[in-house]
Amino acid sequence: xxxxxxxxxxxxxxxxxxxxxxxxxxxxxxxxxxxxxxxxxxxxxxxxxxxxxxxxxxxxxxxxxxxxxxxxxxxxxxxxxxxxxxxxxxxxxxxxxxxxxxxxxxx
Length: 107
Known about the structure:
The protein is α+β, with helices and mostly antiparallel strands. The protein has 4 helices and 5 strands. The radius of gyration is 12 Å and the shape is globular. The relative contact order is 0.31.
């Protein structure tokens, strides 16, 4: 069972999770991160590091966010790995409080 990045990450892109990942399973898009399910070893370290609580076990993804399981797998095949922490997006703090951001995702 892999872990999944959900909607809360969109337009925030905090990368605290990247620092603790022992297998470099995170992939980076312009305004979102995903987890490569083929690389994730289910260590749970990233979950506690996410300041917007965007990371869940595949079986625990909140209702209405299940589409992010397939989305993580799809985008992980397209995006490049991110292996070092970066600054969050400039307006991350504002976007962290907003729900319903899927339309803001830049592929």
